[in-house]
Amino acid sequence: MKPVTRIESRTVVLPTRDIDTDQIIAARFLTTTSKDGLGKSAFYDLRYGKDGAPKEDFPLNRPEAEGCNILVAGNNFGCGSSREHAPWALLDYGFEAVISTEIADIFRNNSLKNGLVAIVIDTDTHDWLLDNPGASLVIDVESTMLTLPDGRTVPFHLDGFARYCLVEGVDQLGFLQKQQDAISAFEENRPWQP
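^ that's the sequence the OP posted. Answer follows.
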């Protein structure tokens, strides 16, 4: 995982509420344990018609969405079953962050563990972002601050451990591996034996 300290990008807006993990990546695409290539299947049934042609009215298919690395989603994003492939698909598609007023807990935890910054913000800021697709934002992960195009800053909450892992570019296993010297010292010096 690469370190994530700052994200600067325009937004693409998907205002639909209750987008579940099966809509993010349909079950039929879960035949792989690799993260590579899942982006082409992200939102597949929403992005493409039955003939496989892109739906012109879907936000991610519009020309102005190209190069946008921040997804502004409707309320209750990522609900449904636990599916680690969902954040994998969004990351492989090119998203670095997703913003909403409500992100399902399991999806949010899976996202943060995989380097996708999942941000919950207040309703007023969310409404402004929904009304202004393509807005240029700055997300500072270290200070947990979102900066809007007019310079206003909006704080957001990230669990301290999740923020540490994002900034350091490590997952939970990587964090434990970095503690190997301390673990070894503890095992050698403990007064009791297992």
